[in-house]
């Protein structure tokens, strides 16, 4: 299949690489010379011209930032979308918005995460169309896929899309705590990553509630309960809940703002 990736940045580049590795012909777009050179170095074609990329492809991935989407689509003739399959990875942007601007295309949304760069994304997919299987295959090349109702895309974006940033913050906090207690940063970082991998394996093996694992670790009057008391006092769990809710609300808001811009764009075209 011929695949176009519009916006070959962090996520776009991972998808260019994935599509090439599955034997597809790929054309990636970008604005800067640096982006275009990176796409070429992977073995794909590269162009600044989104129309050229769309016209020559059956499957089109839209991986520009949501804020750049209205400007990007305004430079594309609306006829070009007819008969294409389009997959947007943009946070917040609704299927309804995409369908309105891409008349005649079958439209999907995907929400991967930055772990797609190491083949370990968990990607939510939504939408309907004949190329559902091909869309699923593309994202399975960068990790695992889950088909979900569109209503869940904003919270998925918060939990899984933004999640690696939140976990990185937590990792940094743990490392700094160890540094404050006299461990070198290098050793602490390596130890935290191993501890996380082990914890994930343990949680997956036991399949129960995560608090069962917590209680297995927590010796009466031991070290863990001393730390847990601080986490309780500092409302760490409450902060995590609010973090996901805030990010999810932001995705919803972003979708609304982009929808309004696209509506204005369509009425100006008429
Ligand atoms: N980063 C993440 O972890 C995740 C991001 N997403 C979503 O993926 C999308 C991309 O994010 P990310 O990869 O981080 O962003 P990047 O900024 O890394 O990539 C965006 C790319 O779009 C290109 N671009 C901008 N405008 C145009 C245009 N008019 N025509 C062609 N190319 C254009 C930029 O090119 P240039 O650099 O040359 O200007 C850049 O390479 C976003 O919509 C985001 O919501 C989804 C899940 C996770
Ligand atoms: O921060 C963002 O908006 C994007 C979406 C998911 C991850 N990064």
CATH class of the largest domain: Alpha Beta
The CATH superfamily of the largest domain is known as NAD(P)-binding Rossmann-like Domain
Our Rg estimate from Cα atoms comes to 22 Å
What composes the largest sheet?
8 strands, mixed
Bound molecules: NADPH dihydro-nicotinamide-adenine-dinucleotide phosphate, (2S)-3,4-dihydro-2H-pyrrole-2-carboxylic acid
Instruction: Sketch the topology as an H/E string, one letter per element.
Output: EHEHEHEHEHEEHEHHHHHH
What would you say the CATH architecture of the largest domain is? 3-Layer(aba) Sandwich
Q: How are the strands of the largest sheet arranged?
A: 3-2-1-4-5-6-7-8
Low-confidence stretches: none
- Which of globular, elongated, flat, extended, rod-shaped describes the shape? elongated
CATH fold call of the largest domain = Rossmann fold
Span of the ends, CA to CA: 34 Å
Content-based structural category: alpha/beta
Binding site for NADPH: 50
Pathway: Amino-acid biosynthesis; L-proline biosynthesis; L-proline from L-glutamate 5-semialdehyde: step 1/1
Main location: cytoplasm
InterPro entries: 6-PGluconate_DH-like_C_sf, NAD(P)-bd_dom_sf, P5C_Rdtase_cat_N, P5CR-like_CS, P5CR_dimer, Pyrroline-COOH_reductase
């Amino acid at each position: 299949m011929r695949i176009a990736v519009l916006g070959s940045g962090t996520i776009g580049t991972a998808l260019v690489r994935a599509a090439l590795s599955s034997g597809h012909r790929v054309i990636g777009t970008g604005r800067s010379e640096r982006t275009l050179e990176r796409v070429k170095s992977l073995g794909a074609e590269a162009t600044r011209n989104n129309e050229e990329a769309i016209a020559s492809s059956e499957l089109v991935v839209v991986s520009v930032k949501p804020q750049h989407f209205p400007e990007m689509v305004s430079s594309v003739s609306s006829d070009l979308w007819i008969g294409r399959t389009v997959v947007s990875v943009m946070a917040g942007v609704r299927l309804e918005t995409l369908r309105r601007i891409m008349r005649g295309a079958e439209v999907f949304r995907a929400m991967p995460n930055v772990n797609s760069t190491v083949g370990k994304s968990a990607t939510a997919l939504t939408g309907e169309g004949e190329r559902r299987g091909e869309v699923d295959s593309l994202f399975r090349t960068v990790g695992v896929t889950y088909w979900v109702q569109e209503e869940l895309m904003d919270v998925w974006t918060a939990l899984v899309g933004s999640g690696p940033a939140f976990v990185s913050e937590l990792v940094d906090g743990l490392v700094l705590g160890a540094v404050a207690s006299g461990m070198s940063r290098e050793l602490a970082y390596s130890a935290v990553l191993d501890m996380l991998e082990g914890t994930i394996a343990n949680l997956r093996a036991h399949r129960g509630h995560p608090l069962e694992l917590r209680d297995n670790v927590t010796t009466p009057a031991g070290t863990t309960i001393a730390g847990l008391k601080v986490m309780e006092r500092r409302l760490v769990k409450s902060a995590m809940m609010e973090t996901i809710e805030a990010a999810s609300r932001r995705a919803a808001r972003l979708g609304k703002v982009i929808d309004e811009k696209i509506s204005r764009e369509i009425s100006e075209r008429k």
